[in-house]
Each structure stands twice: as structure tokens, then as C-alpha cells.
Amino acid sequence: MTEIRAYLKENTPLLFDGAMGTCFASLPGRAGERCELANLTRPEEIAAIHRAYLDAGCRAVKTNTFTVGADIAQGQDGLARAIVEAACRLASDCAAPRGAYVFADIGPAPEEKGLCRAENYCRQADLFLAQGIRCFLAETLPHDEGIAELAQHIKSRCPDAFLIVSFAVSFDGMTRDGYPGETLFRRTAALDGVDAVGFNCVSGPHHLLEYIRRLDTDGATLSVMPNAGYPTVLGRRTVFQGTPDYFGRKLAQIAQAGASIVGGCCGTTPAHIAQAARALAAPQPFFSLPAQPVHSAESRPVPHANPLAEKLDSGQRVVAVELDPPADDDIDFFTDGIRTLRDAGADVITIADNPIGRPRADSSLLACKIKRELGVEPLPHLACRDRNLNATKALLLGLSIEHIHNVLLVTGDPVPTENRDEVKSVFNFNSRKLTRYVSGLNETVLRTPFRIFTALNLNVENFDVQLALAREKEAGGAAGFLTQPVLSRQALENLKRAREVLHGHILGGILPIVSHKNACFLRNEIAGIRICDEIVGLYAGKDRAEAEELAVRISARIAREIAPFTDGLYLMTPFKRTALMVRILNQLSLQTKNAQTR
């Protein structure tokens, strides 16, 4: 058999097989069975599928082991070994008479406590190396975590091994974990021990063709294995309606566009691969690629202004005030409150996204309205709870069109228990993944990048974990943090630690307590808030006027204490009491003037 690197140098695209899972599930009575277990329970059926792909003309087959990483993550090493041994034997026995290559198929490794993804990948690699496998395909990946370690591990044990790394991107080039495919491609192609990089799954052949036409591979060996098309549901079955002849033509165009390694993913049957083999063998008509825009710093459109970002970047302190959106369609109080807060000195108005999981007017629509009609700089909260990836991108594009370029990204409060039978939460990702996703849009799509803010909880028991999450958000593109309220000495100490560790701007949270009852409720029933005994005790026996006076004094005192460790303040309006917030803003303004005259 020709060594695989020599084969690729012959300028003949290496054609892989298609989707083992699709073919196995199509067999009578097999739709509900786990495909990988069939290596042990139905080996003759798996071997028949391998042979069908080889008969169709593929020159490389994948072992039937895509989900073995889950077995290892669950501590079932014996089962993983048995599946791998059987899969390697079946694939090798079928491939050897045809002179085809056998690739160890490694799917995304789950993250489990005590076993990181890198270790999971390396354990899988050892199982394959023990069976004499020397070619590897890590596929359908949403990120590159653990891949550098995998590449180093394989090459340290088998220097002539061949490793393909393939990421799953949607038609816009983003993975489900929020990474731009172009960034992952570039990083992975630069790794020692990685021989080819590319894309598979999620997208059909047309969209992957369009995507790689815009991709600068910089000489890296490119692998592309699209789905047969996009799935639809017929009865109770999920099917792909992309026809074999269409797939074959598109795969030939993908090869002409620069892919040295091609094949099929979900929905691709031996018939699809047979058409691809014919199309690849036929003389290809020359076609010129359409000119693509070059997104260099010189050619990208001039971004719009971002007053909030400019003020923070110039070293000026910022005051953001949060006002909850209305629960009905009467917006008069909300807009009147915005005007009042603006006139009192608020730089930014933040708007929560369905706080505590209860529906209110959409924060993004309100942000557009107050920006356009009142000239106020908004900071809408954007939660992961209620939107999938498509809806999130559509919303962000709309915000940018409306010249709103600051967002606060939060995971979102869960839906209240009593509503869970009727309302289902949608969490495609958490705030860290959403941060990476928006950062990717900043790099690839948007004329004016979003300034990304995220939440920082100063009141958690284990603040080391919160800091680690915050640093991950910064690495993903977060430029600043709005903290939970500082109402205890421990929260202040945690804020000091955050200032030492984090690089982004920090707006310190201040929540005025308006009564003893309010203090007790917040301390006992609202997650993320800790109030010290001293503050709770101060409110005992106070009437409304006395409690508000106390709230002004305490808020002003906290503002002074946190000033050295923050770049501004994040004030939260309780119970629509904008008049109270005006008093606090006036007191803060007075403090600032007094400090400047000293």
C-alpha cells in the first residue's frame, strides 16, 4: 500500500467512506441500537457496511468507534477496549484486500471530573495503537481542547502516524461551542503532529464548499466531509434528502477548491460515495472562484462609535443603572424612569433579560427603543436560556444594525418550577460559550464589534471557581464585568482579588436595600446575594423614609469603599424606585466633586 503522504502528493483526493451510523440505523430493527456496540453483537452487519463503502470506491474507512470516548469518561475502559479491538479487526479485514487505509475514528471527548479531554483522547489513541492502527481522525469537534496533547501523544509513540483533525461548523463557520472555524483551523494547522485539518458534519456540501472558498489554508492539507444535506423528519425517522448525484458533484467541486481529503458524514450512504468516486475520477471543468472580500484592517468598513467603550478605555469612571423592563405593554413608567436616570447622571442603562426566569418585555427591543428615541446608551442583558444559536445571531445582528454595540452576556435564571410543565428552557450554551461566539462574530461578521460584558458573582462560597470562570470569559473575548452587589466584607475582599487577577473593566454592584423585610428576603431567597448581619440589623424598625435615607448612606459608603478596585458602578433599581436612585446618584456626584476639590 502506498504510504499515505505519498498518496496525497499524487494530487488525487483521498476519498473516505460515509456515515456508518446512518447505514446501520437504516437496517431493519436497528434504529434504536448503539452502532458501536454492534462491533461486538452484530459484526457481520458492520463488516457488510464497510465492504459496501469500499465497493463504492472509497480509499479510506473509519473504524466504528465514534462514541468510545463516552465509555472511557464513564469509567468503562473494558468496554471501550473491546469495542476498539473489534472495530479495528473488522475495518482492517475489509480494507486490506482493497489496499484501503483504516483510520481510527475519535469523536468529541466529554468533560468529566477527574478525566480531562486530553487524557480521554490519549487513552483512546493508546487503544488504537495497540491494534496497529497508524492513521487517526478526530472528528466533529466543537473546539480544540485536548488536541495539541493528542497530537503530541500519538507522534511520541508512533512518529510516522497520520492525524486528521476535523471541526463541525455551521453554514456561517461557527461551532456549537462558539468558536470560529477559521480560528480553530489556523491554530490546529500550526500544531506539530497534525497532518491535515478540516471540517465535517452539521453543514451540507454546498455550504462547506462556500466556506472553504473563503478560507485561507496557508498551504495546510485540507479535509472536508460534509453531510448529505440537512435533515428532515418523516414519520418518526430523521432522514437526509440530499441525492447521491448532487453530493458527488459537490464533493468534486470541494476537491477542486483545495480539499485533498474528502468524504461523507451524516446521511451519506454507499450510493453517495459511489457518485463521489465517479465525479472525482472524471475530468473536472475549470471554473474560476468568485472574488471574496478581504477582511483586512485596511479594507473593513469604519466601525460606528461606542461611547461606553470609549469612556472606559479613556480611564473615565462609568455609572450604569439597571431598570427592570415592564411586565406588560405599558412602557410609560419605564421610559419616564430612563429619562430621570439619564438626567441624574447615569451613563448607561442596563436592562435585564427576563429576570428570575419570568417573562418581561424583551431587553433588546427596549434597548433599541431607548437608544433611538431617548438617545440613551443601553446595555441589554442577553441570556442563553431562551434562544438557540440561530436566534442569538439574528438578535445580535439586529442590535448592531440599531447601533447597539454593548451587551451583557449571562447564562440566565432558570424557569420557575411552577412553569416548567408549560415553559421549557433552551440552553444551547452557557455564558462562556456565548462570549466566545460573540467574539467570533466580532472577528468575522460585524462592522462594529460588540464590547462584551459578563457577570461576576462576588458572593459565591468558592470564589476561586468564579475567578477561573471569569478568566475563561476574558480569554474568550470578555472586556468587562458587572458584579453582584457588594453587601458584605467577604464580597469586598473578593472584589479586591478580582481586581488583582482580571484584566477587564469592573463595574461594582450596588443594590440599595429598602427595608428590613427586603433585606431578609434577599439574603434568604435570592441566589447570588449575600448581606452581612450589620446591614440587616440597621434596617430593623425603620419606616420607608428612614430606610431610604439609610439606603442612600450605605450605597454611598459602599461606592467609596469599592472605588479603588473598580472602573465604575453598577446600580440596581429596587421596586421601580427611580427617585431613590436619583438621590443616590446625586450623593455619588457630590462625593466625586468633594474628592476632586481636596
Describe the structure in brief.
By secondary structure, the chain is of the alpha/beta class.
Q: What labels describe this entry?
A:
elongated; 23 helices; single chain; 8-stranded parallel β-barrel; 598 residues; 44% helix; alpha/beta; TIM Barrel; 2 domains; 8-stranded parallel β-sheet
Structure, explained:
The chain contains 23 helices and 20 strands. The chain is of the alpha/beta class and 598 residues long. The protein folds into two domains: 4-281, TIM Barrel (Alpha-Beta Barrel); 316-414 and 424-597, TIM Barrel (Alpha-Beta Barrel). The longest helix has 20 residues, at 578-597. Residues 286-298 and 416-420 have low confidence and may be disordered.
Span from first to last CA?
84 Å
CATH superfamily of the largest domain: Homocysteine-binding-like domain
Number of strand segments = 20
- Helix amount, in percent? 40-55%
Determine the mean pLDDT. 91
* Low-confidence region ranges: 286-298, 416-420
Q: Radius of gyration, Cα only, in angstroms?
A: 28 Å
Pairing-aware structural class of the strands and helices?
A: alpha/beta
CATH topology of the largest domain: TIM Barrel
Q: Give the number of domains.
A: 2
Residue share in β-strands: 15-25%
CATH class of the largest domain: Alpha Beta
**Number of helical elements:** 23
Cα shape: elongated
Largest sheet: 8 strands, parallel
Which CATH architecture of the largest domain is right? Alpha-Beta Barrel
Could you give the order of strands across the largest sheet?
A: 1-10-7-6-5-4-3-2
